[in-house]
User: Fold these one by one.
Assistant:
Number 1:
Amino acid sequence: MRINAFSDVCLRVLMVLCADPGAELLTTKDIAGAVGTPYNHVSKAVLKLGNLGLVDAVRGRAGGVRINAAGLTVTVGSVLRALDEREDVAECHAANGDCPLIGGCGLRGALGRAREAFYAELDPVAVSSLARPRRSGPVAVTLATRPAG
């Protein structure tokens, strides 16, 4: 299985926000820089995550985004399920006509079960467990020129 680019951006946004849940509001621009994704893609992801009830967004000059309680406990599997808008993994139904084998084909069901197994494997993984704390400022380094003593 492969997740789409939008799901990837959404997971990245959640991970950035989970890295420091008590932090001040982060702007969409700051998040875009942190996840290495264009601002407009991150804006769409933040809107969708807000609609899913996983983040709180405050509009205006002093606004920004923060993770909420639901976002701190959500699992990767449930996020991917919520973002997956495809009916079929395969193109059984297409604008130019349905697959001629659709009536007697077992592939559609097998692929559906495989997709669900993929999500089920990710159900126990909380997004917050994947986030690494952000470092602010330089890391202090202590150098010793000779052993103590």
Number 2:
Amino acid sequence: MDREADVTVSESDRLHSQLSRCEDMFPGYRAEIVEGAIVMSPVKPHHNETIWDVRDLLKPQLSLEWAFISDVAVPFDEINEFCPDLAVIPDVERRKNRSAYSPDLIELAVEVVSPSSRRNDYEVKPRAYARRGIPHYLVFDPYEAHCVMFWNPGPGGYRGTDTIAYGGTVVVETGIGKLTIDTSALPVDPSAVS
């Protein structure tokens, strides 16, 4: 837990300020810095509903030492500042109520796919999360009706992935305990392939 982010707090505050201005200018969109570019993603009801459902399923399984952050800046390097849909970090850190947190605090990162975020969620973020040693990364996709679980991080990306169709149970063996997520009630976009 003593690893530090590569981006200083002042740089992080500057980047976060830019993101906040973008979100204020475009209500209904979420902003992140991905590979040096500000990326705006529209947010639909299934997106937030999935985040809330996953949080509600995980919360009773976590000890009081762990907590969630959601859509809070996590600077990775000079060209990437992500805002994970959901991340599990030590509660003592969450209580500091910062505008940005180090990726080195994250035990589990969760993203929910939006139509415009596919590449970022499936390609860019897994590489960045794995390089920083985030042990577990889950991508919930209401358009494909599945969850992709990434595990065993390395410098080139995650060495293991599993795809669990909605209706199944996602089981994540973490350093903070075994976490399970029943996907049967997660929202599925009407365009999803059956």
Number 3:
Amino acid sequence: MKSSDDSGVGTMGIGAVAARFGLATHVLRHWESMGLLHPGRDAGGRRRYGADDLTRVAMILLSREAGLGLGTIRSLSASVDRATRHEVLRAEAEQLRSRIAAAQASLELIEGGLNCAHEDVTQCPNYRRLIAERVGPRLPAHGRARDGNPCASRDD
């Protein structure tokens, strides 16, 4: 399905489109090979991008900025079924929530280091709390050898 006609009137070449969006031309060719873009061709076989193509490029860029992969974008654009679209987007939303939680934890660690008055950050109460949370519960005292190392069994 071509989104622009062969006349070339009101269309742009691949270089102009790439420059307009700050992309390399090979990116547009790749998106076309994946079925994300369908530019028309002029009489000489050169790609011609119309208004619909520009809208599509902008949509792909927004989707990429939202963290969606090209395969997901292709699935969403190929699907007209609302239930399928929601299923794909729910999974993406959950992955995004996980990335946001990880970024929040990273920011908490960094801001804790910035706000810590201790010379040695390992003495900072916030740092120690985060480390303790990562380590988890300690082994019970009866599960340790005299040297403090964990024991496999008491019969050693």
Number 4:
Amino acid sequence: MTAPAPAPARTERHTRRLSRRFPRFTKDTARPEGGGRAAPGDAPAPARQWPMLVVLSTVALGLLLTALDVFRWGMLLVGVALLVGAGMRWALPSVGMLAVRSRFTDIATYGVLGLAIVLLALSAQPNPLLEIPFLKGILHFTLAN
């Protein structure tokens, strides 16, 4: 009888982690592109996050107008705030906490949602400022069935 062949030597990669599962605790997470501070570190905290504060304060003002029964202008302000957020994410190299995912994903999300809110606010009843031709047909089709 011959002796069994020796097991292959384990490299450092194999000795560190034997499981194919993801680690329970992550040690580092990549910050989104442009997710650094928007102002130097010695600036006060609100100044470091000014892009996010601009968008949030504009949305808050729009929601306040909506609560005060100025629905159309409030929702227009909310939509414009998201469009401004998309513009800042596209134009500025660092936008602080306004950067959530990749630059493309943030711009697409802010832009599509902002445009949808603006279009729906402009076409809201009564007396819509914008007539979307196929919207009336969709509404009648969904209510008729």
